[in-house]
Specification:
Layout (H helix, E strand, L loop, with lengths): L1 H55 L20 H5 L2 E4 L4 E4 L6 E2 L4 E2 L7 H15 L8 H5 L23 E7 L7 E5 L5 E5 L10 E3 L18
Antiparallel strand pairs: 1-2, 2-8, 3-4, 5-6, 6-7
Helix pairs in contact: 1-3
């Protein structure tokens, strides 16, 4: 009789453990599916951005931004029509919308999403395919230049970068003083933070370099007239 009771106890314990394992596995599966859905949503938004941009704004047309434009000077109509903004002073071009949002010709639609560092790099790779160019995560110096100290949160020029989330954004700059950690810029405070592990989730804004205008070559010297 006692052996039967012990067998039943062992069966109940094993069944309980199995149930817990199944619950954990299911939770992990749901978490993985949620992350995959987030990445898909980000990449789908970038694809939709390419469609909207090609339909409403000539890709060859470029906006521009300077240090003064990020603080007090009004944005030009050309700047407000484009889905990208060029910082000619520093030789970079920004997507006006955060990853997860799309530009409709007037503002950024949808909600920005938070990604891990690897997921953010994947979104940049998809942007290179869908939009062309060499889109990437910004460096710390590049992203910090967008901070508008005189602005209310989010601390960025909302005319040029509408509906920016007042929260940390990834950079691809490693912290030299903290192994395995990366820098972010917080657009709620305007401050940087350098102890972000790659598996943390942050918001993303993409940038790419653009070549300076080709300098006009001087006219070739005329050959000397024969004597």
């Amino acid at each position: 009789m006692r052996n039967q009771v012990d067998s039943k106890k062992r069966f109940v314990i094993l069944s309980y453990r199995f149930l817990i394992v199944r619950m954990v596995d299911k939770s992990m599966f749901v978490m993985k599916m949620s992350r995959c859905s987030a990445i898909f949503h980000a990449l789908f938004s970038l694809t939709l951005l390419a469609v909207i941009a090609s339909a409403s704004v000539p890709v060859s047309a470029q906006g521009s931004v300077s240090s003064a434009a990020r603080s007090a000077e009004p944005a030009t109509p050309t700047q407000l029509r484009q889905f990208t903004i060029r910082d000619r002073d520093n030789g970079v071009e920004w997507l006006r919308c955060s990853v997860g949002q799309v530009w409709n010709g007037f503002t950024c639609m949808g909600e920005a999403i938070m990604l891990t560092l690897d997921e953010a790099r994947s979104a940049a790779a998809m942007a290179r395919v869908e939009l062309g160019g060499q889109w990437r995560l910004p460096t710390l110096d590049e992203l910090e230049r967008l901070v508008c100290e005189d602005c209310e949160p989010p601390k960025i020029d909302a005319r040029l970068f509408p509906r920016t989330t007042a929260a940390p954004y990834w950079t691809d700059s490693k912290n030299r003083w903290s192994v395995g950690r990366y820098w972010t810029v917080n657009f709620y405070t305007g401050y940087t933070f350098g102890r972000n592990a790659p598996m943390m989730v942050r918001y993303v804004r993409l940038v790419q370099n653009f070549p300076p205008p080709a300098a006009s070559s001087p006219p070739a010297p005329r050959p000397a007239a024969p004597r």
